[in-house]
Write a structure and sequence with these properties.
Helices cover 75% and strands 0% of the residues. It is mainly α and 108 residues long. Helix 1 runs antiparallel to helix 2, helix 1 runs antiparallel to helix 4 and helix 3 packs across helix 4. The chain is elongated, with a radius of gyration of 17 Å.
């Protein structure tokens, strides 16, 4: 009886789709911040803060896992956690530069 092999490979995500998810999160965050500033509302300010944290978590779990594969040599606890924390807290900037690098790598 043959047992199905368990694969450690995860399905990958196209760069365009990952960019769309990032853009949607960024657009929603900008809208929430604009509403918070235009109405001077602390409710929308708090909502924007929690959305920022939630979007960082979502992008780290749903997008980052599918577009980056860690090389075994660099798959250390320090390297992985420091990069994941950077992408979690600074997601608007870090994903933009990641997509630029991946796009340049794909084109060149």
């Amino acid at each position: 009886m043959d047992s199905p092999e368990v694969s450690n490979e995860q399905e990958s995500m196209r760069l365009r789709v990952a960019f769309f998810y990032w853009g949607a999160c960024l657009g929603a965050f900008i809208v929430l911040v604009a509403i918070a500033f235009s109405f001077n509302s602390s409710l929308f300010g708090n909502l924007a803060f929690f959305f920022y944290i939630g979007a960082g978590f979502y992008l780290s779990r749903a997008v980052l896992r599918k577009i980056i594969e860690w090389h075994p040599m660099y798959n250390t606890l320090y390297n992985v956690t420091s990069d994941k924390l950077k992408f979690f807290f600074l997601w608007p900037i870090m994903y933009f530069f990641l997509f630029m690098r991946l796009g340049i790598n794909k084109v060149l």
